[in-house]
Write a structure and sequence with these properties.
Layout: E1 3-5, H1 6-23, H2 25-30, E2 41-43, E3 49-50, E4 55-57, E5 65-67, H3 68-87, H4 97-109
Parallel strand pairs: 2-4
Antiparallel strand pairs: 1-5, 3-4
Amino acid sequence: MKTFLGYEVMDALDHAVRRARILFTRELVRKGLDPVTWNPIQFVGSKAYTDGTTIWLPNLKQDARVTLEEFRWMQGYALHELGHVVFSDFTTWGETSVLKRMHNAVEDLW
């Protein structure tokens, strides 16, 4: 079974998001982000989420063995959260947790 080392996965995900900056330059500028220097991925904790600027992905050890299936999950998380950064308007989500979760659920389906 094909496996990757943790540092290879982190590098690949970082590279994918850097490439996406080129595709979404206009949207990022509109949100006040500099597409040239914006580097949003942080590998911290055990969840994938974003605040609209930074993308947090589950932490990996540099020497972790990651299966192809796990790597694809991580790609999916990264691209999903990138979609939120590029297309979500976090100012309309309101302050209550229930409203945020409902808005996020509808937006995820959309």
